[in-house]
Amino acid sequence: QVQLVESGGGSVQAGGSLKLSCAASGFPIITYCMAWFRQDSGKEREEVASIDMVSKTTYADAVKGRFTISKDNAKNSLYLQMNSLKPEDTAMYYCARKNWGYCYSDGPSYNSWGQGTQVTVSS
User: Band of the pLDDT at 105, cuts 50, 70, 90?
Assistant: First the structure.
């Protein structure tokens, strides 16, 4: 059974840092495209960052240079290091898995999701 469990969210002041974790079970993350998404109330869900099976990473323009996605295959876990946080980064953050090893947008969609972890950045 595929399961994704996020943790590490919280409240922080602008300019601060947080590190999100996603513990995966039921499958090896090494063979899948994994990503972080976020959604704030009343807004569209957006892809923040992704990492594929060969560790190629992509980032949304809004977070480039501030966020870093990584994974630990031995721990079967995905991470998102968030630095220089801004109030506009406030959202629920979700870990997701695409049923494919690559993260190309024309491939399969993300079909497994965690329950989310809230990040709140105050000014």
Answer: confident
Residue 5's contacts (CB-CB under 8 Å, 6 or more residues apart) are 22, 23, 25, 114, 115
Cα(32)–Cα(54) distance, rounded to whole angstroms? 9
Dihedral sign from CA coordinates of 102, 108, 111, 114: positive
Q: Measured between alpha carbons, how far is 8 from 29 in angstroms, rounded to an integer?
A: 19
Q: How far apart are the first and last CA of the chain?
A: 40
Average pLDDT rounded to a whole number, residues 95-111: 91
Residues 5 and 23 sit within 8 Å (Cβ to Cβ): yes
